[in-house]
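Exam revision sheet. Question 4 asks you to relate a sequence to its structure. Input first:
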Amino acid sequence: MIDIEYEYNVLADFLRGDIQGGLFVVNEFITACNDASFGNSLEWEGIGNAHTVTIKKVVFISSMNI
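Answer key, structure tokens:
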């Protein structure tokens, strides 16, 4: 069992239930994350056993005067 922080429970459930140790799917998710991160893809969506995952790059712009 892996100890994870509370806010990652949904992600952990998805990984346990949908990926189920399949290396091909894990590599597909890693590639999708890299593609989104580097701007090679606007969005990737995959459907598993019980969840749908969408991977896309999100940019937050904050203008704060400190």
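Marking note for examiners. The beta strands are 43-47, 52-56.
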